[in-house]
Amino acid sequence: MRTVKFGIIGCGLMGREFASAAARWCHLPEMDVKPEIVAVCDTDSEILKWYTDNFSTIGQVTDDYKELLANGEVEAVYIAVPHNLHAEFYCAAIEAGKHLLGEKPFGIDLEANKTITDCIKKHPEVFVRCSSESPFFPAMQRICRMIEKNAFGQIMEVNSGFLHSSDLNFEKPINWKRMLKFNGEYGCMGDLGMHACHVPFRAGWSPQQVTAILSNIVEERPDGKGGMAPCETWDNATLFCVAEDSASKKEFPLTIKTQRISPGHKNTWYFEVLGTKKSARWSSKQINTLELLEYEGGEQSWQVIDMGHEMTYTSITGGIFEAGFSDSILQMWAAFLYELHHGQAPGKFAGCVTPDEVALSHELFTAALESEKNNSVCEMKQ
Ligand SMILES: NC(=O)c1ccc[n+]([C@@H]2O[C@H](COP(=O)([O-])OP(=O)(O)OC[C@H]3O[C@@H](n4cnc5c(N)ncnc54)[C@H](O)[C@@H]3O)[C@@H](O)[C@H]2O)c1
Known about the structure:
Blueprint: E1 2-9, H1 13-23, E2 33-41, H2 45-54, E3 60-62, H3 65-69, E4 76-79, H4 86-95, E5 99-102, H5 110-122, E6 128-130, H6 138-148, E7 155-164, H7 180-183, H8 188-202, E8 205-215, E9 220-222, E10 228-230, E11 236-245, E12 251-259, E13 267-275, E14 278-283, E15 289-294, E16 302-306, H9 325-342, H10 355-374, E17 378-379
Parallel strand pairs: 1-2, 1-4, 2-3, 4-5, 5-6, 7-12
Antiparallel strand pairs: 7-13, 8-11, 8-17, 9-10, 11-12, 13-14, 14-15, 15-16
Helix pairs in contact: 1-9, 4-5, 5-10, 8-10
Bound molecules: nicotinamide-adenine-dinucleotide.
């Protein structure tokens, strides 16, 4: 069993998820590589106590990411910091020779993403991937295998999205994800978009043009100090794309929807493929349920399948038990480590988002901003 010693930079919400996944690695009995958290970095010292209370393997605690990157024991890093810091932190990690799983959107804007992409190209010895756990649910992986086998026939339409709802509460205080300076112009697309793009891009369905409808619904929020602060970023985005299937060269409509205000949707991923031979749809609202329509002439009827624990990276959990968010995080981390160790993922859809895929998401979100600004259809540069 190879052990990869990790540092975590940015130890908030997502940093804890990774640490917790590392702590239950024994859940994955067939993995021959495992992570060990040896260093943590955050400017908020309060947040680090949870780590040092729970992980005896941590030998370095710092508020300076450069100190962590100078630690020779650290082989790889997970970086989960606000978007304005991505380019600086990711490039520094790559230049320090650390393998990197970086959080999306991988740069606050197209320019920052290009800086990271250029840095990756100069350091091919470093393994770099972007975080997105959305395809690692059992139903999504089943749909992915169907895509791989061309089971859908001609693709007629694909709808993919990620919906949140807590911002419907106008009293919710502002946080960095609602501020231009930290979150960037993409707004909800930067926050949520990579998840919705992951499977379409991996499938080879690339947007050729986009028409975007972006909404800033809540223009100010409580600042947490008794006043109000401007809430500058897009709350909701619906991208109507014409996509091309790279294999058949046929075009079809693809919608990518990312919303912070989708009433009733606490955290809903959904995905739908409509094809001439088969159609499939899944929503994390009914996490265990895959809907499938197989057409061979005659009656058209949707079947409903309970997925249970059909995981890409074998888990000790019994096959009948449903999967949850933390299982998808564990699977994503298995994907990262497997590919780091073996040089390739065990299947087309069993790997994390690549730098090329994340770059395409930036092209799409930038085109969406242009479409909104000019009230136009924006052609994508390929
Ligand atoms: N994959 C997912 O499902 C998912 C979910 C939420 C957020 N994210 C992404 O994760 C990243 C972080 O989001 P989060 O929700 O964990 O945010 P968070 O605010 O909970 O955590 C960010 C942490 O970064 C720390 N930080 C800020 N500046 C720093 C600096 N200079 N040096 C070291 N630490 C610093 C903060 O103190 C904070 O603890 C973002 O890129 C976000 O888009 C991904």
